[in-house]
Specification:
alpha/beta; 434 Repressor (Amino-terminal Domain); 7 domains; six-stranded mixed sheet; six-stranded parallel sheet
Length: 1056
Amino acid sequence: MAADEAQLRQEADTSILDSSTQSVQYYAQSFHPQSGNVHLYPISAFTRHAKPETMYRVQTGCGRSAILTGDHNLWVLRDGNLTLIETADARTTDYLPLPQQLLAGRSMETLGTLEGLAGKRLFADAQEATLPLAPHRSGPPLIDTLNRGLIPNEPAALSTLLNDLGITSDTPLPEFWPRLPLALIAHLLQCWYDDVATVEPNGSIALADISEPQASHLAYALLSLGIWCQIRRFWELPSGGEHTGRWSYRVDLTGGAALYRFRETIGFSDPSKRQALEEQLPTAEMLDSEPVPIRGDQLRLLRLQLALPLDEVATQSGVPAVTIGLIESGQVEPKHGTLFSLLRVLQQAADAQHPGETWWAAWQTLSNLSQLRWTSVLAAEPVAYHDPYVYDLSVPGVETFLGGMGGFFVHNTFTIAHLIEQVQRPTLVMAHNKTLAAQLYSEFKEFFPNNSVEYFVSYYDYYQPEAYVPQHDLFIEKDSSINDEINRLRLAATQALFSREDVIIIASVSAIYGLGSPEDYGRVVINLKRGEVRKRDKILRHLIDIHYERNDYDLKRGTFRVRGDTLEVIPAYEEAVYRVEFWGDDIERITEVDSLTGEIIREHVALDIYPAKHFITPEDKLLDAIASIEAELQERLAELRANEKLLEAQRLEQRTMYDLEMLREIGHCSGVENYSRHLSQRPPGSTPWTLLDYFPDNFLMVIDESHMTLPQVRGMFNGDRARKETLVEYGFRLPSALDNRPLKFDEFMEHIHQTIYVSATPSVYEREHSDKIVQQVIRPTGVVDPVIILRPSKGQVDDLLGEINKRIKKGERVLVTTLTKRMSEDLADYLADMGVKVHYLHSEIQTIERVEILRELRLGIYDVVVGINLLREGLDLPEVSLVAILDADKEGFLRSDSALIQTIGRAARHVEGTVIMYADRITDSMQRALDETDRRRAVQEAHNKAHGIEPYSISKAVKDLTDRVRVAEAKEEYQANSLATAPRDELVRMMEELTQQMRTAAQSLEFERAALLRDQINDLRVVLEADDTRPEWEKIREQQVKESRGRSRKGVKYET
């Protein structure tokens, strides 16, 4: 595949070759960082761009290496946690992932991504062979013939061919070796090993004195047979008095697993070497293979949570108790086989005890890590790089691929980040509900780990707007419950827009509602710099002006405290404590400290403190606003009295004068947003300030599920206007309250510079206003749209129960959609009575709980979720293989063609996705949905067939979609049945161990883990107290003795 310049797409300094322009679909061997699975994923694009000033060579402990840019990404195992880092941040304590075996499909290819990439090879699978991708070098006619695919398929013929080509141990593997069947690759390698390999006395097989390309090709070829090798590099000085030397490479096979695999697949034809190998196999079994660098305390915690004694685990796993103890204490790292045995024992115990989703998530993490090999980072150092370009692959869905000399996994975020990266502009992604926004927020945090990805939705857990019903003379006071965590995220979003450019904000339609003036918000930011002269008292007054509260005892978000010359503040949008130390009027030091331990995290040269509320009015504007409100009040009172509306006038005067008094005294009042026009000094009827005004003019807008989001935006203004007109008419609000409103649709469109509409069922508006429409029908996984089955409504519930039981047996999940809330609840109750793990989902369930229910569905806590209109747009549930639509023939909003297509799409993540429509007739909407699904499915199947794609289900980590959104997660009741039978001294020992682990976790700033351990300690304490049958006075006496000992002086030795 030579890169034809006509096929290249140029964006900035990047040349892009889309895979769609090629006749062959290429694949990269990739690993999924969340599941740990290794698969072949389709490559969507090859890229070439100008090299940066500095390139880095990453070298591993097993001898592999790769040259990468400093901002390239690597998934590494750091302190037992899988972490995405930049190349320049790699540490020698990090571990890089490698596959257990090179996956081979119909053929393997040596990929040179674009012209000029010859020699920088990557490996992938392709439907047909075109070797190599970079332009051919001129060579013998026989080589050209081989490149056209004429390769012998018998070992004898291959041996003759190799001799004819002059290929010996002194030349690299032939270019065509990836095209060979595995049996012939094994024969080719046997020729090499018979010729020059040696069986060492230490139980290893060595192939020495080879070049770097030979070592790399050999490592890949061995990996294709599932054989793990180590690469060593030596500097050799030539004989004869020359002053220059060269690097020489050596490939070693060590460990019992590698040598046994070598014997089974390659072996020696030389009898003496075969005998030497047999003699060394017992020695090789004793050699330690590459370990899994997990944290032993994670394994220990899993065991303690199940109350499993160490001896019992040792007996069941066959691993000595001493070895388990060394692993749990972190003194040794387990081999793959050892870790597998221990995890299997824990899994069997957990199946009986049902420890809860937190335990299973921790167990799954360790299981995922055991599926890969891990090699330590030896160095990540700047290196000379003479090629003017760097090259990359784009692998949608995972963005990892196997590359480098010898091969290890590297990460690239080209495709997902491509659009935002190329436009280099802040981006707003709008969704039509909080659940979808939370999912998008979680996914974008993974896609853009180094960007500022923020979340902006309504901060009300509950909101009842003030309203008046004239028919019943009923006034409904405003009632709301504000979620402090979501409020913090809203403040973090606006703060990021003022302080960074790489901002991506995921928002609901809350983005079009009134917000404080961005100009005033930015004017009152407190800028502090180390070494500058600032009056401390003036800074304190400034903090109060921007709505921070002084609290010298309980420091929390949005508060500050003063201790002598030290000011400590927690910004309203962060969790960290910032300490500003003064020396007189000089700012001597600015540090970020841990709120729990007081430990210094880092030092800062400067600190910007943004307001604690969005509605900020400088003092000069506030005085003008109060005068303006008073003038409007007098004008409105005169109008009401002239119309003999004395009650309304008296009501309005009383309410407004109270608000004005609050504004004068504290600068804020309840319902201050109703005076936003005066506070921001806008003319009547003008467009309100919203989140869109905090973005620069050229920001990028992405409207997800546009067929739902745009109608919401269009309808918000009218509903708000009707309610407020009644309040104004009856004297509850001034007419200026009408200007505290959401944007009108035309105002919303005026704010937008460039828009991308995303929808599987776009409406007429999107089609008419789009310059270009792109159909994304093909999925990277090859999964096609689900099969749709029509069944009669009679007996639909009993038939559905049978289908559910089939899916449960296969470990799959089911979604069921009904027409009413009552029906969803009744159906859920019926299924529960039938023994099905089920939950219903509708609008009366709080936002955070909805996300939790869907998360628990994926985890298997529920097998079925019954819903109405929430099981539609954007929900990504890969475990769902069946979607059942009850009463599909009831024409209406919930059974329109777009609603049906969206619901059908929930089964399109699973390779066995199926949709069952229960109906007695086929409506027009059903027919349109069926036709569209059949059309899409035909295109997908044709693409898969043309490119030889084997569909596989999406692999996606099960995680809390709202990690930063939820304030707290309800804890599952602790299963103490197994603890109740444990000896008391064992429970005491477990509690002491957990206490020590909790303190260690807190010192390591792992507060979530510390909180989990604290809860487990409390549960153990409950079990101990329940088991304690002593009289109450005896317990109190023991506690008093402990306290008195705690007060006694310790560490003082008295001589007698």
